[in-house]
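Quick one: structure for this chain?
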Amino acid sequence: MSEFKELAELERKIGYEFKNRELLHHAMTHSSYSGGKNYECNERLEFLGDAVLQLTVSKYLFTNMKNLPEGELTKLRASIVCENSLYSFAKRIDLGKYILLGKGEEITGGRDRKSILSDAFEAMIAAVYLDGGDEQSAKMILSFVPDIEALKSGKVRLGDYKTILQEIIQKNPEEHISYKVEEFDGPHNHRTFTANVLLNGQSIGKGSGHSKKEAEQAAAKEAVRLMGYETD
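Got it. Here's what it folds into:
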């Protein structure tokens, strides 16, 4: 199948090569593409992927955050497995590019819809789990989870969000953050700048300000928020 060629690219991005690539194809099949047939779309895989994700993150936090009580562990896990975080994980690897959508969803922007991307990411987790077992699925999941030192810092407060964002993603040295000032307008003494923060070339946050630095901080803050961290 022609779609399988692109899935090989996705495999390289997540660092896992499938023995049965049909599982990954299934994980990338949205219900709008399958004609609403649940057994042909990724909804059942999403159900399993959610459970694998919860268990993997729970074990990771339990092992590494020995001084946190149950309530704090629950809050921290929720910030990692929430839809915003899954959406940011999916954006890192341009997951929308690989999802099979029906024409209606394609036309209405489904390829970048938060719910579709986060669900597909969970379905992909399940596909890795079924194909390679819990060790391989955990390895893939934890490659997206923020560094444990960043997690230990607790609630993110107002401040240098560019540094905070860098700390969150520094676990993966191959990932690269850059900023692009997209546009500006207004009189010379009161210009408004708009900046995009890019992770491996993909936009993960956008913000505005009256200077380039202020716009970049606003973009980084938005990216941190979308990853599930409190910013106020």
